[in-house]
Design goal:
The protein has about 80 residues and is mainly beta. The protein has one helix at about 20-25; strands spanning about 10-15, 30, 45-50, 55, 60. About 10% of the residues lie in helices and about 25% in strands. Strand 4 and strand 5 (about 60) form a beta hairpin. It is globular, with a radius of gyration of 14 Å.
Length: about 80
């Protein structure tokens, strides 16, 4: 199996709009596919990005209770 965004398998999830930021912190990328549709009022289609951590060869989904490290913080902020 080749990881997310490589040649091979891609992983997608529909995510409620209120949780998109959580999924982005976990390495997922929001796609514009639902923009301007009735479904887009409620959810966003997301794809596992190249920096998405893997578990058993599949990307970790925040809804599965996995601890996600906030990579936006550095140095003293992370402590």
């Amino acid at each position: 199996m080749i990881g997310p965004d490589g040649d091979g398998i891609s992983f997608f999830k529909y995510v409620p709009n209120g949780f998109v930021h959580v999924w982005e912190q976990a390495g997922w990328v929001a796609l514009p596919s639902l923009n301007g549709t009735g479904h887009g009022l409620y959810s966003t289609l997301m794809k596992a990005g190249p920096n998405c951590p893997l578990k058993d060869g599949e990307p970790i989904c925040p809804c599965e209770g996995e601890e996600i490290e906030d990579k936006s913080k550095t140095g003293a902020e992370a402590a």
